[in-house]
Amino acid sequence: MTVRVACLGMGWWSDVLADAMQRSGKLEIVACYTRSEEKRRAFAKKYTCKAANTYEEILQDKSIQAIINTTPNATHLETTRAAAAAGKHVFLDKPIANTIADARGLTQACRDAKVVLALGYQRRRESHFRWIKERLDLFGKLVNAEANISRDRLGKIDLSSWRYQAAGMPGGVMLQIGIHYTDVLEYLLGPVKAVSGSFVQLVLPGDNPDVASLIMEHENGAQSTLNASYASAGEYYLMNIYGKEASAFYDLHNGLRWVKRGSDKAESVACEKNDAIVDELEEFARAVRGEVEPEMDGERSTRSLAVILAGIKSAREGRRVEVEEILT
Description:
It contains 10 helices and 15 strands. The protein starts with a strand and ends with a helix. The chain has 2 domains: about 5-120 and about 280-295, 3-Layer(aba) Sandwich (Rossmann fold), CATH 3.40.50.720; about 125-275 and about 305-325, Dihydrodipicolinate Reductase, domain 2 (2-Layer Sandwich), CATH 3.30.360.10. The protein is of the alpha/beta class. It has a 9-stranded mixed sheet. It has a 6-stranded parallel sheet with strand order 3-2-1-4-5-6, with helices on both faces.
């Protein structure tokens, strides 16, 4: 049974999710809304759905079970709270919000209304990270990790977009894409306890950092580093996980390798590429049907946000910041 959804907020990512829903076939897009009539009509034509005149029209439609919310971060509380009040389940793109107060507010609204809240963190679902996660017992004590997530955005950004403004995306590149890899690092190494951060603007115009670095202390004692960039040539992803008994090395161009203690050569690991976005959307559909709980819910996503906010505060104040300080 397909889940009937409405898409809220038309932009490039709404189309990415809509394409994934069409690949899946487990979710049916029946309506859409954004403030721009031109954008919503174009989306409706592309995905053969109804262009609603108002968000309220969607909320009042009893046949719509869920909202796929890709609105700006600062509107997540208002739009999600309204959906919950109307009894609609919500799939919300990361980050959950720009503030902990908003994150907790929308999480509570969904909890009170007994509707599903799921967050889009597709990177953790990629087959190479799932492979590592399933074999962590072979790694022994986890001690360190290093990660990089970089994309070339020179000449490709729209400064009128909230995504590239400090008010709409505080922390710039680290909140927009770095949060994917802080999530993977917590997924593999466990919760982050404290963060030291450095944020700079080197290449892109505007008022937001395009290069950022975090040093993270995990609760299990391991340390990890993450560099995120919009200012470097080309796209690149790297994630190296170091354990006492084994280590794994992933990068965009060479795939996954791993090495066990006593070996002097890393072995290649064949990981079939999976559709991580389809995977998270299908999990959401199962959650709507009451079959599973979302892997990334409101509480986990609030803590994920707190890691980034700790890094931002650290960079601003020049000191190590504990995640609990952000959460209290």
